[in-house]
Amino acid sequence: MSVLPIRMFGDPVLRMKAQPVTVFDKELRTLVKDLTETMIDAPGAGLAAPQLGVSLRVFTYHVDGETGHLVNPDLTLTDEEQFGPEGCLSLPGLKYDCGRAFGVVAKGFTMYGDPVTIEGTQLLSRAIQHETDHLDGIIFIDRLDPELRKAALKAIREAEWADGTPPPVKLSPHGGTFGTAR
């Protein structure tokens, strides 16, 4: 188990659709443990395998004191929407208001191959949707309205880490959401 470097915006692996996990072995369990340690160390509310350069459909989350993971997620979203701040460990220091479904039912598997269902609202729902987007090559700024997305892309170009060197991550005032505080 290790804390590994997180891939930054611009890394091609973040734009690829991750492959389904087909083998539930020691290597997968090590990946889940590395994802968890890296996420907690960052700190973040979630981390997907592509953010560590591994193109597999697996992510971890840490929301409201609960830590978990999901392999090969399949989501059902509620019709009710929420709008709130969202950031990403692959875009450190940036946070923008983003719309998401208020609730989610996520079905998938544990790292041992056992079926599991996770139900969540608010921040847990946001985290699950955000991390599943990573598995589909989608970054949260893709979900912003055009003007806000334009501002986000400008901020990315001007970010200290745009050269590939991430700054230290700061604890969010919202309890460690998906990235850093502004």
Automatic annotation (TrEMBL):
Top-rank taxon of the source lineage equals: Bacteria
Q: Record's CDD domains? A: Pep_deformylase
**Which residues act catalytically here?**
131
Q: Please provide the record's keywords in A-Z order.
A: Hydrolase, Iron, Metal-binding, Protein biosynthesis
Q: Cite the EC number.
A: 3.5.1.88
Q: Which InterPro entries match?
A: Peptide_deformylase, Peptide_deformylase_sf
Q: Does the keyword DNA damage apply?
A: no
Mind telling me what this protein is named? Peptide deformylase
Gene behind this chain? Answer: def
